Amino acid sequence: MREIHTAMERRNAEVLQNVIIKMIKARTFIGFATEGNTGEDVFLACYHPKGTVLKGMVTNTDVNKYMCRLMEIESLADSTRKYFAGHKTLFPADQYDVLWDKKDAMPSVIVKSKKSKKMLSMAAFNNKAILSIPGKKKQIIQLKTVIVYIDKNEEFYLPNTLKNLIE
User: Fold this and answer.
1) Closest to 129 in 3D by CA, of 91, 95, 92, 82
2) Cα angle at 55 between 52 and 58, to 5 degrees?
3) pTM of the model
């Protein structure tokens, strides 16, 4: 799927998403607790070579604890601190210019290094970044994680590895 670049394309995608959600709600017994999440029970199938699987009715927090136990991580918070940082921490204002659009359905951010003049463009809830180096063709970088945006504190949570790309 090609990346959505313009604000108009992102708005059109949001309108389409809302139409589809309304159609699903009108024709099924699925209700959405938020814009994209249902409040309904969801089928979960597990496999583990040693038979350590979740069974019966489980909550979403139990799934998180189960996954953390299997992956041998203390908690989701520890993993988050290890791999992610807020954009204000990762790209301090004395070294980087940060421009962002938080009004759009899919907030986006552009980070420019004051030293190297390299730029990274990213959209929230996406796993791609666009690297721009002066005098070179733009590169699309496939990330191993998704870019998270939290509107409550107006912060993008970005993979720590992004800083290495524009230093």
Assistant:
1) 91
2) 115
3) 0.58
